[in-house]
């Protein structure tokens, strides 16, 4: 019996605590909960915002495929994936993955796998908007992301 | 056939979406890319770095040798950078 | 420049959200936040509570040593470890690890490493209290935990 | 020397903590365990499965061959089961 993952693609921010409680509240079979939050980062202090473009429909479908793959590979009691789109300023949340399981190894690996696959397969694209210059630039995909994803094959 | 573009592919083509008549000789995604490149400079620029283009047929990732078949929607975009 | 980990050993519950915000609030250099929560589990429905005994002083010292080891091994922007003691009923929190970094691989690995080492090195012992019978039983250490810890050597 | 016990080691010895005079011949942790086993049945029972006993000297993990030196506190306990 595999769980049905919860997948959401939304402009609004998410509440990691509420999502964690959704997977643990009122149950006694969850021993481990791993929560990954990806945030917009700007160490150079030059970024106004990241703009996240997505392919509506396929984004949800692809995240669901990746999440179902994770629930088939690991004995999870719950799995949630939320990815935002639109303009996101530095310090704000972009993506949330919460994996719950009886055992910690499954929860860690499922969340890690999900982020690796999401990075290379979910149809989202980041464009940087720079504060002072007003310029924009598409973020380039990293070879490292493909290597990370290849760890699971 | 309905064609969608995302990110810098969209910016180079200049439209988000278009419906085009595909000649009978176009069987695969690669054939479609060749056909699109022949349409005008914008399309040619968008598909200039062909290796950098990813394709989805009816919202599923496919390789360039995929047969278009009766797919109703083809999407072209750069490598994904979400997460 | 490595960060100073925050380590707490306490009877009270913790607030994973507040701890996460402590590591991300007001900063723009955190790209990834991994939070691990370990909970008291009771799939059989026979457990009244887990009683967690600890070695006061050494528990804090050992968790600090493990956490400092993690901050030396991975480029973290923040690291928090909280371990509870006392009687903990099924469904309640036992342990929290929050690792923040610019990059997700460091945050995942540091949290994973910390849990593996904590399991085998931090001086805590679990005793099961069974509901109906009133009996108690010390939880035995698992070989699997040693193997998990050995992944990092 | 101040000795502390935890978990089932504590339950078998019957005390949490005790201060004992250590003979001059006791140099290592293993020597101390042998000495403690000779004290009474409770200590003997606690240290019966010697391989299952973990040791800390002044709150640091050590192996049985560790020299006691001027450590002020020795603790004995089963393998840890936290987390």
UniProtKB/TrEMBL annotation, chains A, C:
CDD domains: MoaE. Its EC number is 2.8.1.12. The keyword Membrane does not apply. It comes from the Bacteria. The keyword Lyase does not apply. Heterotetramer of 2 MoaD subunits and 2 MoaE subunits. Also stable as homodimer. The enzyme changes between these two forms during catalysis. PANTHER family: MOLYBDOPTERIN SYNTHASE RELATED (PTHR23404). This is Molybdopterin synthase catalytic subunit. The lineage of its organism: Bacteria, Pseudomonadati, Pseudomonadota, Alphaproteobacteria, Hyphomicrobiales.
TrEMBL record, chains B, D:
InterPro entries: Beta-grasp_dom_sf (IPR012675), MOCS2A (IPR044672), Mopterin_synth/thiamin_S_b (IPR016155), ThiS/MoaD-like (IPR003749). It comes from the Bacteria. Keywords: Nucleotide-binding. Gene3D superfamilies: 3.10.20.30. Belongs to the MoaD family. NCBIfam families: moaD. This is Molybdopterin synthase sulfur carrier subunit. The lineage of its organism: Bacteria, Pseudomonadati, Pseudomonadota, Alphaproteobacteria, Hyphomicrobiales. The gene is moaD.
